[in-house]
Design brief:
This protein is of the alpha/beta class and 677 residues long. The chain folds into 5 domains: 77 residues; 143 residues, 3-Layer(bba) Sandwich (FAD/NAD(P)-binding domain), CATH 3.50.50; 63 residues, Alpha-Beta Plaits, CATH 3.30.70.20; 150 residues, 3-Layer(aba) Sandwich (Rossmann fold), CATH 3.40.50; 76 residues, 2-Layer Sandwich (Alpha-Beta Plaits). The protein is built from 22 helices and 30 strands. Helix 12 packs parallel to helix 15. The longest helix is centred in the middle third of the chain and has 17 residues. The radius of gyration is 36 Å and the shape is globular. 39% of the residues are buried.
Length: 677
């Protein structure tokens, strides 16, 4: 949702050239001029604006604290927002006007950011310190003043016992760590408590396996960690004990880790469209394969997401072909609308050849700010686009951004995250296959994961300066589910393509394609229809027919794995012809009508095959029995009851007999013998 916000421009003491009127015209506002020193000499101007409680957007983030203090003084009730146009746009050695870029950044900032669900965790301050030697002991001594500390040493050779036992000291080897902030489960082997009578060096009792619960973990061990993606696990701190600065910083952070804590509920899961499993047969496992934190597990035919362990990388949502896993910080709809507004406003205000620079709000913003201050900033056609995690970006976003006019895309990747970005790399490979197949120049997405700001600046600006063939930008609204948005973007990207071919080859595993059915072996059992989670396969209730909708196929392979005749194969491809949106018949046969009532009940080839196979069986040795195979279920039962030759029929039911029959002489012994069995 786009909310109208009043804009206060500031050129930061004349360090930026700002065309206030042009920016105002682009935003539909009457902006006469830009302030020069809004946070200092012109603070009265800001104060006057803040007294008006209508939503306000100030183009400064560095001095936000100053404006917030003024807002408090004037008891402001309305929304107050800030956006950085200095390091992102104004501070650049590029001599071209940045008017279009500034207008685009402001238009994007107008879009409301909806809230998101959270999960709650509680820490009571129960901390276990895992380590060895004197560093672990000193950390325990410092943290014991604020937290309930337990020290578990890997080794304590020659370690002098503390003069005051203010916390318990044990020795043990960590075997396994599970859980999260407030609920860690740590398993030890050879777990033993220190002898209080130890004199010159610490000594321990005989050890035994132990399982303990803790709220927090400080891991100072030199041994490998037992937690995947540990930087994403809240409450788990891993520090090199030999580096004093990080150790001191961690002690400071841990000191406040008591109380209730909230974290975003990053991923929403819709099991109704999940393609993971059907009837015990595995299909799609993309989210399981790419989750670095181990927060996703199999749960029957579906998967289970642990929001407490989830670190919010978003790769599950990025690679999910159906949208069953969707990222919520923000939602895909909000993210797409922001990108559409940013690119569209830039082009509408006179900008050209935009490079969309996707970055996170931590490493990315710090890098952009550093480049803006020390290395000439970003060129005017580089549009910074902040997301929570760059790995949350999916194919529908890349396709849509390109269709909206994003000539090039770049991802500013934190160097430490490159190794775990395999999901994003897979998505980019699909995107590159689409672009390359349609004749677009160069790589679709450039990954910038350098640690040196100067190198980062050079790579981004070189890409921005490269000449590319322009395409006509689209302006479609990102409406519908993931698959619908994706197909809309693909169609428009195809229309503007330099070489709009009908079909593009895709890498194996891409969520596009068709299936091939060997009709000579297909019995139209339709088990594939019930297995398909995406609605790509369907049947006709009153006719033996198998139909296929190619636009829905995600190539999960469940149909192939389920088929009892093994006559289905996958054909990964991306077609742009209109018929992909229409059902086509893969296989159909003439229905077989019951020879008794005339009701269609099966497939002729199947019935003929069954009759042929069973004609020599003893149960079907006569023509009447064989003919029952050609009857529907109801008629078959009726015929078996009515026919004396029914192999399941017994003899005639005996008449009831009583003592009175014998006394009256109405029953002879011969009759009795012949009828009573």
């Amino acid at each position: 949702m786009v909310e109208t916000k009043r804009v206060m421009l500031c050129d930061c003491n004349g360090s930026m050239q700002i065309d206030a009127k042009a920016i105002g015209d682009s935003l539909g506002q009457d902006i006469a001029d830009a302030s020069t020193y809004l946070c200092r000499h012109q603070l009265d101007k800001a104060e006057q604006a803040l007294k008006d409680n209508s939503p306000l957007l100030i183009t400064c983030t560095q001095e936000a604290a100053v404006f917030l203090e003024v807002a408090e003084d004037v008891t402001r009730q309305g929304d107050l927002h800030f956006v950085n146009i200095r390091e992102t746009a104004g501070w650049s050695r590029d001599q071209r006007p940045a008017t279009a870029k500034i207008a685009a950044l402001l238009a994007e900032a107008m879009i409301d950011q909806p809230g998101h669900a959270t999960v709650e965790m509680e820490s009571k301050g129960n901390l276990v310190i895992l380590g060895e030697g004197d560093v672990a002991l000193r950390c325990a001594e410092k943290l014991s003043e604020r937290l309930n500390v337990t020290l578990v040493l890997d080794a304590a050779d020659g370690l002098t016992p503390p003069a005051l036992n203010s916390f318990p000291v044990y020795q043990g080897k960590v075997v396994k760590v599970d859980g999260h902030l407030g609920a860690f489960d740590v398993q030890f082997e050879e777990f033993s408590i220190a002898h209080p009578s130890a004199r010159d060096a610490m000594a321990f009792e005989t050890g035994a396996p132990r399982r303990q619960k803790f709220d927090l973990i400080l891991d100072l061990r030199s041994a490998p960690t037992l937690i995947n993606a540990l930087e994403k696990r809240d409450g788990y701190f891993r520090v090199d004990a030999s580096d004093g600065v990080p150790v001191a910083e961690t002690i400071f952070d841990l000191s406040d880790m008591v109380g209730e804590f909230s974290k975003p509920h990053y991923v929403r899961y819709d099991e109704s469209i999940c393609a993971h499993n059907r009837s015990g047969i595995d299909g799609c496992t993309r989210c399981l394969d790419h989750c670095p934190a181990g927060a996703i597990t199999t749960a029957g035919e579906n998967v289970s997401f642990d929001p407490y362990i989830c670190g919010g990388c978003g790769m599950c949502a990025s690679v999910c072909p159906t949208g069953a896993a969707s990222y919520q910080v923000p939602t895909a709809t909000t993210l797409l609308e922001r990108a559409r507004t940013l690119i569209g406003t830039y082009l509408r205000t006179g900008g050209s050849d935009p490079l969309l620079l996707i970055h996170d709000t931590r490493h990315g913003e710090e890098m952009i700010n550093y480049v803006g201050r020390h290395f000439g900033g970003l060129t005017v056609n580089v549009l910074p686009f902040a997301v929570n995690e760059v790995t949350q970006i999916g194919l529908e976003f890349l396709i849509s951004a390109s269709a909206w006019g994003g000539s090039r895309l770049a991802v500013l990747m934190p160097p430490v995250r490159t190794a775990e970005a395999d999901g994003l790399m897979e998505v980019i490979s699909w995107f590159d296959a689409v672009r390359g197949g349609l004749g677009y120049e160069g790589s679709g997405v450039m990954i910038v994961d350098d640690a040196d700001p100067e190198i980062v600046s050079g790579r981004i600006n070189d890409l921005a300066d490269a000449q590319v063939k322009r395409s006509k930008p689209a302006s479609f609204l990102p409406m519908g589910n993931k698959r619908e948005v994706l197909h809309m973007g693909l169609r428009l990207l195809h229309e503007a393509a330099p070489a709009p071919v009908d079909q593009v080859s895709m890498p194996v595993g891409a969520p596009f394609g068709s299936i091939d059915v060997n009709v000579t072996g297909c019995t139209l059992c339709l088990s594939c229809v019930s297995a398909c989670p995406a609605g790509a396969l369907s049947d006709t209730p009153d006719y033996p027919r198998l139909s296929f909708l190619e636009s829905n196929c995600i190539q999960c392979g469940l149909c192939r794995a389920t088929c009892p005749e093994k006559v289905i194969s996958l054909d990964t491809r991306l077609r742009f012809t209109p018929d992909v949106l229409e059902k086509r018949v893969l296989h159909e046969e003439e229905p077989f009508a019951c020879v008794r009532c005339g009701k269609p009940y099966g497939v002729r080839s199947t019935i003929d095959h069954m009759v042929e196979k069973l004609s020599g069986h003893s149960m079907f040795s006569d023509e009447q029995a064989l003919n029952r195979l050609k009857m529907c279920a109801d008629c078959r039962v009726i015929d078996m009851v009515e026919t004396a030759s029914d192999p399941m029929a017994g003899g005639a039911r005996p008449l009831p007999r009583s003592t009175d029959d014998y006394i009256a002489g109405t029953l002879t012994d011969d009759e009795d013998d012949s009828t009573v069995h």
